[in-house]
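Input (structure):
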């Protein structure tokens, strides 16, 4: 099987498209699935508050591509201190590239230029799907490189809608069921009240 490139990154292999709660983001998920099958739109920019599912969706996309024997890489840019911008070199040869938390490298000139160059190379080669996530829309990011802001708006842009409490409980119960655990409503409510409400923190508590 093709592998995630060797980087100091732990990829959550249990993140999948099937356990991504899609009701709030059906247009996005439908468009992604179409492009997974037949690449028509190369660029997707996803933004929203922390815990709304951006990272889950990017990792799920990578897991899906790897399961289909296709090349893919996930880069959490909030850990960019662990690697250099050179890690983006030749990524236009991958079938899928996911850059998570782009806002973490904004105002770092070398990183901004590396992302800008990667987008241009991906556009030129025409074979790679690029998913980028951030906590703000492309126009709200305070990029030092003006041309990067315009490149980030090239494709489809989606604001991910966070789950409400009832949806979080449902997702928690579905995730618990997949692990062979029955999670009563009162226990799920207890977890929501006592823990950070982002879904990975809640999943880790199961």
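Output (sequence):
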């Amino acid at each position: 099987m093709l592998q995630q490139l060797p980087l100091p990154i732990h990829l959550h292999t249990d993140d999948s498209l099937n356990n991504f709660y899609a009701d709030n983001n059906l247009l996005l998920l439908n468009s992604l699935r179409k492009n997974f099958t037949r690449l028509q739109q190369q660029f997707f920019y996803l933004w929203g508050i922390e815990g709304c599912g951006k990272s889950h969706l990017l990792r799920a996309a990578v897991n899906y591509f790897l399961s289909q024997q296709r090349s893919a890489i996930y880069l959490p840019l909030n850990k960019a201190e662990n690697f250099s911008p050179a890690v983006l070199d030749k990524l236009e040869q991958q079938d899928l590239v996911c850059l998570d938390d782009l806002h973490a490298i904004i105002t770092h000139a070398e990183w901004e230029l590396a992302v800008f160059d990667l987008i241009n190379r991906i556009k030129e080669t025409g074979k790679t799907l690029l998913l980028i996530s951030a906590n703000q829309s492309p126009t709200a990011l305070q990029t030092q490189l003006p041309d990067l802001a315009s490149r980030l708006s090239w494709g489809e842009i989606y604001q991910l809608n966070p789950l409400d409490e009832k949806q979080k409980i449902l997702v928690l119960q579905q995730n618990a069921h997949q692990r062979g655990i029955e999670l009563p409503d009162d226990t799920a409510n207890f977890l929501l009240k006592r823990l950070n409400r982002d879904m990975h923190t809640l999943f880790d508590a199961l």
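Notes: Residues 109-125 form the longest helix (17 residues). Residues 72 and 96 are 5 Å apart (CA to CA).
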